[in-house]
Amino acid sequence: MPIAQPNPKARGSEILGYAVGEGATSLTMNGIAAFAMLYYTQALGLPFAQAGMAFALASIWDALIDPAIGHLSDNTHSRWGRRQPYILVGGVLLAVSFYFIWAVPGFVTHGGLLFAYVLMMNLLCRTAYAIFAVPYVALGYEICTDYHQRSLLQGSRLAFNMLVNICGPALGWSLFFPDVAGGKEATSTVSNFLHMGTVFAIATVVFTFVVVLATRHHITDTRGLVTGTGNSLFGFYRDFREIITDRYLWPIVSFICVGLTGGTFVATLQMYLYVYFMHLTSLQKTIIHGGGMVLCGLGGLTSVALEKHFDKKKTVCIGAGIAAVADLTAAVVFLGGILQPTTVWLIGGHTIPIAVIVFGGCDMINWFGIGLYASLASSMLADVSEVNELNSGLRKDGGYAAIFAFTTKLILSVAVFIASACLGWVGFVNGSDQQSPAAIRWLVLLTFGLGSLFATLVIPIALRYPITQSFMTKVKADLALKKAAAATA
Fold this sequence. Notes:
Layout: H1 12-20, H2 22-43, H3 48-74, H4 84-102, H5 106-110, H6 114-143, H7 147-176, H8 190-214, H9 233-244, H10 249-277, H11 282-310, H12 312-335, E1 345-347, E2 350-352, H13 354-392, H14 397-425, H15 437-462, H16 469-488
């Protein structure tokens, strides 16, 4: 007997309850992306290359275990279903390992073991993240199968991610790294990071329990049901080969890898621009960082309306074009000498920090564009998984979510390493509050120049994606006929 099929549409409360789970990934992964490089290099003195290597290896490991986690999840037989047990265990382990990323023992920092510790804790954190995230994403594919509501669900998930990012990492600039008059840079103080890590770890546990409880109505007792090809090496190989050779999958994987590579350069390096180029106050950092997250979340929600009018791949192109223009504008304005970081306007006796406004505006609009196409990638992937179900007779949402995560993480791990290494290449000095003008100028070019380039490259790739609403309408009709025939056989 095959596994029960999901309802075409989900209630709004179900979508919201599911989206809450994104808070766990948002606090941990965005927290690491925003502060870990600064913590290890500026507060603890780890060389840039070693920090980048640790993050890259952990990300590669995360990518490598994703297919195994997805296959196990698809083929799990328990009274608690295929997804929720992994979500619960993975979420708790994620919170614990995240805490120890910041709680670095003194003997490690003084005994030459810092790189080994950073690598080990990031490997553990990424393992827990994979156990949580792959089944969590697959669960989203199963909550509803409606073509347009899939975009709403994924847009809501992205929006909640950004909301938590605002209340966590973005607001963290003001909460945990306040300006100290006449003192050293707040990101050079170890205790600030530990306080942040403790609060985020506790919140991660809360989000994990909330999503498990909120989605309990979607738990199906899978004992005795046919849920996949079986937990065997042959079954894993068969599923892996089938998914990676799916011609509908690769345009999605390609455009999201290219787009997020540019986004990785912006996300990794913009923190250094906040501190060393723009010399932003903690409030300005919070506004710009938080504003970027707001716009990214709004982009995810806006994509729902746009894809109904333009369909999904054209909406992806619109988002990529917006991100490319925003990054290019920032590069031209600041590298072309139109504005200096300290440029202000005096209007009616009021000082307007025009440079900060333009810098922040470009950054926020860039993230709006990324939000548009990033949320649609997951919606498109759910469509591809359903097309595969028509051919194979089985839902392999975990496998598709895992292979998608595997390829994107593998590519992005390289991007993180290169972006981190670029700091050393351009002449940044770790542990120093003063950097050379040449190093700063190169940093601006790498951040906005590469961000614009990669966003532009998304467009021709996305246009090759062949699935449309009419295509999926036929697939759903064929699936209904196939299931009806199997039920009467």
